[in-house]
Design brief:
alpha/beta; Rossmann fold; nine-stranded mixed sheet
Length: 381
């Protein structure tokens, strides 16, 4: 078993909590490893339970047998958002703590679901991180760049087939069964294009033209990716003192294996290694910030003259990411240009270069392992 950074027992020890994460990240596995005498599980993936509660949400109270102070787990809460009204009441009247998991926020957002008004925290679970895998002595850079960090995929003897199964399941269970789109084949084509353009500026018009649909449809498709937690956006950093920046966001898929499988790169890792390495670094930062429970914004910086820094952490750290095994002066251009925009605590070039040095400009050139070690120590946020 690979220990996860997130501590569910600690999370629900204080108050009720939502735990969101893409399907397959290990939410149910973590719940099953909580002490049995501390919780009761209500699984909305079981049709008979879901149908009963959908017909009469007030039945939830009668299903709960735990004493106050214990934890009730409701898995896949997005399948019946109206239950959150009952959850709210039971927190108030009986002091019951809930752990509410979900792999999609779409129904909760669109249905204006009761998010419990501060009575529940919100946490996120991500695919395996470098920290988790390295502590278990299971980390393999080439494997995670190619196949990603979804637990079932990473640990499989046939990770590529697991990725195909994962995507088939996503399209069938999250998209088709919930009737989120009118045309599944068009959405399937969009998914591949979203993977090809992962890490790039979003261009709705070009994608709409390629797919033969409206710009609004493409915007809706991107929102579906975000709501089902398999996509996320990096907004441009706009707090510079001097230089005008672009206003368009970048979009990423959440996992390198999913991205590369949709791109149909096969085993030709070199074709997409630079983009996969950038996504690998950004994913680790996202997880580290989220698991720290700190509120820190992530962004990127780009000017109309194409000066760019890949990742801005809060307003203190600027990070450029290169997969090259030897750092070059030309990689520092964006970090040098952004230097006058803000009193940075850290400007860092992260790469595969094993030599950690400080450039005369003050920029740190770090191997990615050094950067990650410092990241998890909390130095950058």
């Amino acid at each position: 078993m690979i220990a996860r950074v997130i501590d569910l027992g600690k999370l629900v020890g204080r108050k009720s909590c939502f735990l969101f994460g893409p399907r397959g990240t290990g939410k149910t596995f973590l719940i099953r490893h909580l002490p049995d005498d501390s919780l009761q599980s209500i699984d909305l993936l079981r049709s008979e339970i879901l149908l009963r509660l959908r017909a009469n949400p007030s039945l939830l109270e009668g299903m709960i047998t735990l004493e106050p102070g214990r934890t009730v787990v409701i898995d896949e809460i997005q399948r019946e958002p109206l239950l959150l009204n009952e959850v709210h009441r039971l927190i108030e009247e009986r002091g019951i703590r809930f752990l509410l998991t979900g792999s999609s926020a779409r129904k909760l957002r669109r249905g204006h679901a009761n998010m419990l008004g501060g009575r529940a925290g919100i946490a996120h679970l991500f695919p395996f991180t470098w920290k988790e895998l390295s502590q278990a002595h299971r980390f393999d850079l080439q494997r995670i760049l190619r196949f990603g960090g979804l637990p079932r995929v990473y640990l499989s003897e046939d990770p590529q087939q697991e990725l195909y199964d994962y995507l088939d399941s996503y399209l069938r269970d999250e998209i088709q069964s919930e009737a989120l789109v009118r045309s599944l084949p068009v959405f399937n084509d969009f998914l591949r294009l979203a993977a090809i353009h992962s890490g790039q500026l979003i261009n709705y018009s070009n994608l709409a033209s390629d797919l033969g649909v409206s710009v609004n449809t493409v915007k809706e498709y991107y929102q579906i990716l975000d709501d089902t937690l398999i996509g996320f956006r990096l907004e441009p950093w706009r707090h510079g003192k001097k230089t005008k920046t672009i206003a368009t966001a970048k979009h990423y898929l959440f996992d390198m294996g999913v991205t590369q499988t949709l791109q149909h790169l096969g085993d030709d890792l070199q074709q997409g290694q630079g983009n996969a390495f950038e996504q690998f670094i950004i994913n680790e930062v996202r997880a580290a910030v989220s698991y720290s429970r700190k509120r820190v914004d992530l962004a990127f910086w780009r000017t109309p003259k194409q000066d760019e820094v890949d990742l801005i952490i809060g307003n203190s750290t600027a990070v450029e990411i290169k997969s090259a095994s030897k750092a070059s002066e030309r990689f520092l251009r964006g970090l040098e240009r952004i230097g006058g925009e803000n009193p940075w605590t850290h400007r860092i070039l992260v790469s595969n270069d094993p030599l950690d040095v400080r450039h005369p400009s003050g920029i740190q050139i770090l191997h990615w392992k050094t950067f990650f070690a410092h990241l998890w120590e909390g130095r950058y946020f």
